[in-house]
Amino acid sequence: MPLNDLWGRLEFKHFVNSLLRLSPPFCKIYSNPKHAEPLHNMPRDNIEFQTADHVTLRGWFFRPPTKAPETRLPCLVMSHGFSALKEMELDTFAEYFTQNLPISCLVYDNRGFGDSDTKEGQPRHEILPSQQTSDISDAITYAQSRADVDPDRIGIWGSSYSGGHVLWVGAVDRRVKVVLSQVPFVDGWQNMGRLIRPDIMEALNKSYQEGMRVT
After folding, report:
1. CA 83, CA 80: separation in Å to the nearest integer?
2. Which residues form the signal peptide (predicted)?
3. Of 74, 47, 44, whose CA–CA distance to 58 is shortest?
4. In this model, does residue 117 exceed pLDDT 70?
5. SS3 of 60, please?
6. Is the dihedral angle over the CA atoms 93, 94, 99, 101 positive or is it negative?
7. Of 15-19, 118-122, 151-155, 165-169, minimum mean pLDDT range
8. Tens digits of per-residue pLDDT, 1-50?
9. N or C: which end of the chain has fewer CB within 10 A?
């Protein structure tokens, strides 16, 4: 099916274009906050949902206050990068989107971080890409189950580490209609090569292979 026909059938083109047009104001928020449009503490609900392996993840659900509760809106599922928490400006993005667009946003802490649980017997603050990408799909499942979300108009947003995750999820989860990836982490080995001196890389790699903890 031609891409234009697909967008037309989903009636999603306006949603995508509107999200992309919101990028410049975010540059203002971080580079020069006094020139950014003020946010208005958008209403949000505390939410929690279960992952496929029965771990409870917790976060917030934002929706425009001007929309009736029964209105089914597109939903943008948002997760933070690496060890960051939802309070680390993820709520700022969600507030801005819901203030300026007729969409809802689902924001949550990754498993083992912030308000989210981890699997019994597993350590907190453990970062496994396979689990985090699976959890994004579980967040989509939760969003689709809500009466105020249009299940056919789901987008995902990630930054840094989760920016790489959403590229993966968008490729394998057919429910995703929009992927927004900010400064994505897509090649761990290449990034290591930029951070670690070449003369110690071989020894460091060997220690990883031997299962040693390097401090």
Report:
1. 8
2. none
3. 47
4. yes
5. strand
6. positive
7. 15-19
8. 343 444 344 444 455 555 555 544 443 434 343 334 445 566 799 999 99
9. C
Residue listed under structure tokens 């801005």:
96
Nearest to 79, CA basis, from 169, 172, 171, 159: 159
3-state helix, strand and coil shares in percent for the chain, rounded to the nearest 5: 40, 20, 40
What's the length of the chain?
215
Q: What is the DSSP letter of 35?
A: G
Helix (H, G, I), strand (E, B) or coil at 155: strand
Q: Is 1 exposed, middle or buried (0-12, 13-18, 19+ CB in 10 A)?
A: exposed
Retrieve residue 130's tokens: 């396979």
Q: pTM (2 decimals)?
A: 0.76
DSSP run (H or E) holding 180: strand 176-182
Query: Token digits for 84?
Result: 């960051």
Amino acid at the residue 32: N
Residue carrying structure tokens 């089914």: 72
How far apart are alpha carbons 51 and 136 in whole angstroms? 9
Of all residues in the chain, what percent carry a pLDDT higher than 90?
A: 57
